[in-house]
Design brief:
Elements: H1 3-7, H2 12-34, H3 41-58, H4 65-86, H5 93-102, H6 108-130, H7 135-216, H8 220-249, H9 255-264, E1 270-274, H10 284-303, E2 309-316, E3 320-327, H11 339-350, E4 354-360, E5 363-371
Parallel strand pairs: 1-2
Antiparallel strand pairs: 2-3, 3-5, 4-5
Helix pairs in contact: 2-3, 3-4, 4-5, 5-7, 6-7, 7-8, 7-9, 7-10, 9-10, 10-11
Length: about 375
């Protein structure tokens, strides 16, 4: 694993945690140097280094899930080792940092139980080592641990709510644009049908009536007027047909813009989209299904795979539309279809399409095939 991976995408919380680690280490070295019978600095320094390494790996979202838990175990063991060697009460701050990290990975109840166990184990160890009960320190630091746990949990929920709100807003914008396009598409189709069925029919009937009137009229000036009326009627009929053809030629839905609105405003994800401008969808149901599939894939990347990047590639041939999507996150080895993926598969099947889901490099890949025109 490259060191650049461990230090990439760090925020202010990580910086403050590492600054706290540096401060604790520096204070411990200073106090140890002032004591006549103190442990070797190299002894506890190694555990401080193991603790920092465990923190960097344990908080790295690009690392494997099992590796992160092993790193957190190393982090906790190193904290207890430092506490056993040095016996400084303030070193329980190391376990407070550990609790704040674990709160992002475990449910609140499991995190709370783990916190209580850690606090009891820590101050039991200190009481045994110092041969007197440290219940006041244990109570105070226990409350500090619970405060850090609740603070981290609240921050995580607020962050998830913010991302969810931004994602829903992006989906709403894209859906709104698609509905507008579908409304225009439906209106153009209705106007073209009405022009052809109503105005075209009446002009054809008028032309026939004028032909009959011409045969029944012997007056030359009147026949000339009728011929001119016939020419105007034929000209109007041709204009109506041209207008109908033009309306029907503009049947494609501006699906590209709907996708662009969705992808550009997706939070927490860097989207890499390869969508040619010639991609055209003229069936409203196909357009809705494809947009819903892309929305579901993005939602899964944000909620479940902890991805930072998302790729979508769309192609088209004479009969089908293809969409391939994946991210740089990770899924469980025993992953199963949830309600979202099941609904996606059902939508695609209703359009006589095909959805293929597979795992590659620990990420979920989507391969969608949709007919341009449903059977």
């Amino acid at each position: 694993m490259a060191f650049s991976t461990l230090i990439a995408n760090r925020d202010m919380r990580d910086l403050l945690a590492l600054m706290t680690w540096v401060a604790l280490f520096a204070i411990s070295v200073y106090i140890t140097n002032q004591q006549p019978e103190a442990p070797e600095i190299s002894l506890f320094s190694s555990f401080f280094c193991f603790y920092a390494l465990g923190y960097l790996i344990g908080t790295c979202e690009q690392c494997k899930h099992k590796l992160r838990w092993l790193a957190l175990a190393l982090m906790l063991f190193s904290a207890f080792a430092c506490g056993w060697i040095l016996q400084f009460g303030y070193l329980s701050i190391l376990t407070i940092i550990w609790v704040a990290v674990v709160a992002y990975l475990l449910p609140i109840r499991v995190s709370a139980c783990s916190t209580l166990i850690i606090v009891l184990a820590w101050f039991t160890m200190q009481s045994v080592k110092q041969q007197h009960l440290l219940w006041i320190e244990g109570l105070l630091y226990g409350l500090f641990h619970l405060f850090a746990l609740l603070l981290a949990t609240t921050h995580q929920r607020e962050q998830q709510a913010r991302v969810e709100l931004q994602n829903q807003h992006a989906q709403l914008q894209s859906t709104q644009h698609l509905l507008s396009e579908l409304s225009k598409h439906s209106e153009r189709t209705r106007i073209a049908r009405d022009l052809h069925d109503l105005l075209g029919h009446h002009l054809t009937a008028l032309s026939i009536k004028l032909q009959i009137a011409q045969r029944m009229t012997a007056d030359a000036p009147a026949q000339q007027q009728i011929l001119e009326c016939q020419s105007v009627a034929k000209l109007l009929l041709n204009d109506v047909r041209d207008a109908v053809d033009m309306l029907r030629q503009h049947r494609d839905i501006d699906f590209h813009q709907s996708l662009t609105l969705l992808l550009q405003h997706t939070p927490e994800l860097k989207v890499h989209a390869t969508i040619p401008q010639h991609i055209a969808v003229d069936d409203s149901h196909i357009a809705q299904v494809l947009l819903r599939c892309v929305q579901e894939a993005i939602t899964n990347s944000l909620r479940h795979s902890h991805a930072k990047q998302f790729w979508i590639v769309m192609t088209q041939d004479e009969e089908k539309l293809f969409a391939n999507m994946h991210d740089d996150g990770y899924i469980s080895e025993q992953w199963q279809k949830g309600n979202g993926l099941t609904g996606m598969s059902e939508r695609v099947s209703e359009c006589d399409g095909h959805l293929h889901l597979y795992e590659h490099n620990r990420a979920l890949h989507y391969k969608i095939e949709l007919p341009l025109t449903p059977q």
